[in-house]
Amino acid sequence: MPENTGGKCSLANRECVPCKGGVPPLGAEEVSRLLAVLGQGWAAIENHHLVKEYKFKNFRAALDFTNRVGELAESIGHHPDIFLAWGLVRVTIWTHKIDGLAEADFIFAAKVEELEQ
């Protein structure tokens, strides 16, 4: 079971293996458990997708973060929705093939957390 130890989420150390479909989305209990491990201001909306907003001092900083998230997404084949505005980036994650959340979504979110630092 992943743990959140000392502010560093062990989920980020795990490999993000994209779901190929054919499995049910995570149930509410598992979503709650993984969300507690992830922490860091992420919200699970209707147990269907993860959302977090990041605030930055200006557009350039928000754009730089957006680009880092995009590079991460491309490198592991897990593609979130990313909303960019002046000083704000909203990241929304779910597994499209199962129309819900998989463990890989939480792993990806933890990896996004490390990009902010």
Q: Give the helix level as a range of percent.
A: 25-40%
Strand content: 15-25%
Low-confidence stretches: 1-8
How widely separated are the two ends?
25 Å
How is the secondary structure organized here?
Layout (H helix, E strand, L loop, with lengths): L3 E2 L2 E2 L18 H11 L4 E3 L3 E7 L3 H18 L4 E5 L2 E6 L9 H14 L1
Helix pairs in contact: 2-3
Description of the structure:
The chain is α+β, with helices and mostly antiparallel strands and 117 residues long. It has three helices and six strands.
Keywords:
alpha+beta, globular, 117 residues, 3 helices, Gyrase A, domain 2, two-stranded antiparallel ribbon, 4-stranded antiparallel sheet, disordered N terminus, 6 strands
Compact description:
The chain is of the alpha+beta class and 117 residues long. 37% of the residues lie in helices and 21% in strands. It has a single domain (4-116), classed as Gyrase A, domain 2 (2-Layer Sandwich), CATH 3.30.1360.20.
